[in-house]
Amino acid sequence: LLGRRIADVIGEAAYGAIKDRMDAVLSGQRLTFEQTMPYPTGVKDVRVDYVPRRNADGEVEGFYTLVQDISEAKRNEQALKESEARLRALTDNLPVAMVYQVETSRDMLERRYTYVSANCEPLTGVPIQTVLNDPAAFLTFIGEDQWPRVLEVEREAADRMSFLDLELVGRMPDGSTLTFQVYAQPRPLPNGKLLW
């Protein structure tokens, strides 16, 4: 590679994609960036670090380059986004069901909803953002009289790491009631909490 032009090594298209950044590093800037590169061997996603190389007087004489191929990580990231979008499309369009994900303490006294599907408000009368901001908001739908039973069944499932199957009666804002079934399975998290 010694004595060859960068464009000859990586190709004219790839060189054109990073020339401005090379000019910046040669002016003394240290750069880290991600870029899709059209190499002669194929398109790759890369993470690039440019570090100016200075002489004894502090003048920039060139630069050091570290290029990491992150194509697989980018593909995995995109696949995860697509999978999450498919799951959200499914859960948000269930006609008479709601899906949620909640993180709890082992004793069930602490809880934080991490996901609530779009049917939350139509089915319970409680807006999604309200539930995400205040986990106790479901009490207005479930009713405080049922809460001790909910905690008892949740704690039993948490102790045994077993499937939860619970029938409850919800109270809508207009006073009508809705009988519904709750199904959940706890999964331990590295932080000691549970994800349902």
Describe this structure in words.
The structure is a single chain. This protein is of the alpha+beta class. Helix content is 36%, strand content 32%. The strands form three sheets. A four-stranded antiparallel sheet has the order 5-4-9-8. The longest helix has 22 residues, at 71-92. The protein is elongated, with a radius of gyration of 27 Å. The termini are far apart.
Instruction: Kindly report the oligomeric state of this protein.
Output: single chain
By DSSP, the count of extended strands is: 9
Number of helices: 7
The largest pleated sheet is described as: 4 strands, antiparallel
- Output the helix-strand order: HHEEEHEEHHHHEEEE
Q: In terms of structural class, how would the helical and strand content be classed?
A: alpha+beta
* Share in β-strands: 25-35%
Question: Radius of gyration, Cα only, in angstroms?
Answer: 27 Å
Separation of the first and last Cα atoms: 56 Å
Low-confidence stretches: none
Mean pLDDT: 91
3D shape: elongated
Strand order of the largest sheet: 5-4-9-8
> Helix share of residues?
25-40%
Question: In short, what is this structure?
Answer:
By secondary structure, the chain is an alpha+beta fold.
Helix and strand topology:
Layout: H1 6-10, H2 12-26, E1 31-39, E2 42-54, E3 60-69, H3 71-92, E4 100-104, E5 111-116, H4 120-124, H5 128-133, H6 139-142, H7 147-160, E6 164-171, E7 177-184, E8 187-188, E9 194-195
Antiparallel strand pairs: 1-2, 2-3, 4-5, 4-9, 6-7, 8-9
